[in-house]
Amino acid sequence: MNISVELTPELLEYIESKVRSGKYKSRSEVVREAIRMMIKSDLERMLEEKGFDLKKFEEEREKISGELIEKKYRKS
After folding, report:
1. Whether the predicted pLDDT of 7 surpasses 60
2. Helices (H), the chain
């Protein structure tokens, strides 16, 4: 689906610089990534407001992932 958005020259230049950097192939990719980041930020804020400790969750996830990898590749 196509949409039109009016941008300030500064915002357009910022988007163009992202495309020129080679990380993104088009302006659309830059805008989609920005929207995804906004959604992630909103979800994280909502979870934190409900008392969910994201930092603790990430620490536990890393710990469990490491333990599972170690278990999978442990030499018997």
Report:
1. yes
2. 9-20, 27-49, 54-73
